[in-house]
Amino acid sequence: MFTNTPGIDRLSGLPRPVRLAHLADVDLVVGAVATAYAARDRAFRRVNIEILGGR
Fold first, then answer.
1. Residue at 17 is within a domain
2. How many angstroms separate the CA atoms of 29 and 26, rounded?
3. What is the pLDDT of residues 12-51, one digit of tens each?
């Protein structure tokens, strides 16, 4: 889990407002990555984001 909250290893471990802010930040990163790749590769189509379940 990529977050600035120590000890959190899953999205559901964050309080809802923090979780929503985290997902909004992920959206910003995805937008920046997509913009950068699209500028360099005309065949670029999308960035995939996955939320995987596990133990």
1. yes
2. 5
3. 889 999 999 989 999 999 999 999 999 999 999 999 988 7
Alpha-carbon gap, residue 39 to 22, rounded angstroms: 26
DSSP label at residue 10:
S
Range of the domain at 35: 11-40
Q: Tell me: pLDDT of 54 over 90.
A: no
* Range list of H helices, the chain: 16-40
CA distance 8 to 39: 35
**H or E stretch at 45:** none
Which two tokens mark 38?
Answer: 């699209």
